[in-house]
Structures are given as structure tokens and as C-alpha cells.
Amino acid sequence: MKLHEYQAKRLLASYHIAIPAGEIAKSPREAFAAAERLGGPVVVKAQVHSCARGKGEGIVRADTPGDAQTASSRLLGTRLISIQTGPEGLPVHTILLEQFVVPVRKLFLRMFVDPSHKRPVLIAGAHASVDAAQLTATDSGATATVAIDPLTGLLPYQVRSLARALDLSGPVAIQAAQVMRALYHLFIDKDCSLAEIDPLVVTASNELLALDVNVMIDDSALYRQPEIVALRDDSQLHPLEQQAARAGVSYVKLDGAIGCLVNGAGLGMATMDLVTVLGGRPANFLDIGGTVDETTIRRAIELLLDDGDVRVALINIFGGVLRCDTVARALLQVLNERHSSIPFVVRMQGTNAREAGELLISGPMSLMLEPDLGRAARLAVATSGTTSHKRRGPAS
Q1: Please, what is the angle between helix 170-189 and helix 5-14, to 10°?
Q2: Would you tell me which CATH number, out of the four given (3.30.230.70, 3.30.470.20, 3.40.50.920, 3.40.50.150), belongs to the domain 105-228?
Q3: Cα 393 versus chain centre, distance
Q4: Which residues, 6+ apart, have CB-to-CB distance to 158 below 8 Å?
Q5: Can you give the pTM of this predicted structure?
Q6: CATH number of 238-384
Q7: Cβ–Cβ < 8 Å for 15, 186
Q8: Helix, strand or coil for residue 338?
Q9: Which of 185-216 are b and which e, b meaning 16 or more Cβ less than 10 Å from the residue's Cβ?
Q10: Model confidence over 40-87: pLDDT tens digits?
Q11: CB 306 within 8 Å of CB 240
């Protein structure tokens, strides 16, 4: 679950991380009044679930309250398009106005769970990063990383090593240590999957301010974060993603024509990668998980059928706790009710795969059964009738 910038900054402030003075506004009149109260130049920021807002003209400097009112009039009620939103953009219902800050230095802090370390890691950089992965790979001296043992937490020597890597000393180094410890506690307390300050700036008065932040919460932990759930902004989700969240399945809308339904995130990524390698484009990422019932599976299949971009559906199930015949029965029920013309390519292996195949043989002609994943993906791509690029390699 993503948070808006202003929501994330309020979280940071509750952990005593300094942020610029700011207010939110939902109308041009409110923006004018907020800019008057803040005084001096302000920055007007569109609040959408996307980075790179500046490139999409979603971050604007306003020297006067009138300028702030004009900027807010241009942003509010529109859809902001950035490299992360796709061509449809995201709706702007709220703007954040903050005092304009002139940084002396730009730093960044980023905390997430690193699968290679199997624990949380904290990355610190000596300048604001555009692409952290690219920065780490191309300039190893620009970042420093510490892996944090959950039993001990972030240790003092690790904080000191990061401060040295950032070439900080004196009061600024002490502030940086406090910010790092606070960011770690926020990350753990709120079950974050990502907690990022980029940029963390040093001002002329040697103060550290979190100028922009990005916080994401692990969806699996939302049941114990009711105060975070209350901050959810469903307007930032595709309507199908909203329906999927209510149904209890993971759904991400993409821009292709092949609807993918799987049971497991890893299987989903492998399925989409294979489709892409073969020249197709996935229409979605849809993971039903491993412990769902027939009702939830039916709803997930209906989501595929409700997506107008889907030309063919690829179902890839590896039966374990979730039996293949359970998925087969759900699929047949939906097709008997909906009479969809969308063809389904079905690949099932594992628990009760043979029983599932026997059930699906009696299904409509639009069902194509293929137990081999490589051939199933080829069939789905060919049936979709579209390719995005030349095939890059063999698929078995």
C-alpha cells in the first residue's frame, strides 16, 4: 500500500524527523490561504502515487500566494502523467504546499528488505539518486549499505559508518544518526516494504530536512495497521485493482493483451517474463495465492474477463495447497455463466492436475489445455494476435 507524500511526511514527523513547514489544500482558495500562512516562496506538489512528478510538471515553485493559487488551479482536478503512471495518468485531488528550501547538500536514505541479505538494509547516498539500482551498479563509491539484524536492530557503529560514508561530521552527523535510527524504527513499527527519503537535504543553517519521501506498507501486514489502512486512497488505483483488493487477490493492471492468472508471485513473474520474451505483452499481474476458495477464484477470473484489453487469458497453476481441480471448477462455473468469447490457455501441474484436466476437457472450445509452460505461453502469445518485439531467445 502506497502513501501520499504528505501522509508519509506526517509519519516521519511523528518519529521526530524534520520536514519543511507545509499544508495541504483541495481547492485553489485553500492553496492561496495556505501559501499566505507559510509566507515566502512555496513549492506546490501534486499528491499522486507516483515518483518523477517534477518531470510531469506536478511540482511547481510559487513565489506569491497568487502564483500558488494559479498552480493549484492547473493541477487540481486533472490527471498527472509521469513515467510511472502510464498515459492515462493519476487523478490529483490534493496538493501539498511547502516552504521553498534551498539545499546546500542533497543526500538520500532508503530502507527495504533485501532478499539477498534476507534482512532489512539501509542504503545512504551522498547525493539525491535518480535510479538507486543504476547508481549502485555504476558508482559503488556513491552509496553505502548496511544489513540490519532484526534481533539487534540498527547498531551505533552501522550508523557511524553511514555518516562517514556521507562525509558528515559534527552536529549534522548527529542529526543524520537520529534520522537513520528513526527511519529504521518507522520501517519496523509500520511494517513498511519501503521507507525512503530522497532527497534528505542539508540547509544553510546545518539542519537536515526530509524534502521528499516515499513510504510503502506491506499489504500482508495491513491487518495490524488499521491507522495506516485509513489513509488508503483508492482513487489512485485502477478500478480493477480496487475490486481485486476487495476480493483479496493481488492485481496490477498492465498495458498488454494477455491476461495472466497464477498462484504465487514468483510463478507470476516467471509467466510474465516468458510471455514478454516470446513477444507478447501481459495485460495484468494477477496472483490468487495458495489458500483461496472457489468463490475468490471465480472473482479473480471475472476480473480478467472485465478487462477490455484482454484478448486471451493464460492460467498457470502449480497445485499445492491450492488444488488444480478447485481452479478448474471455478473456471468452468464462470465460463458457464459469462459465455465469454475470450480464449483461455490453461496450464496446470501439481496436486490433482489430472482431475482438473478431466474436468476441463468437457468445457467450451475456447479452453486450450497445455501442460508445458513454454508451449502454453507460445500458444497464448499466438492467440493474442499481437507481439511487442522480436523474440529474444528460446523458450522450452
Answers
A1: 110
A2: 3.30.470.20
A3: 29
A4: 122, 146, 148
A5: 0.74
A6: 3.40.50.261
A7: yes
A8: helix
A9: ebbbebbbbebbbbbbbbbeeeebbbbbbbbb
A10: 899 999 998 887 787 768 899 999 999 999 999 999 999 888 766 767
A11: yes
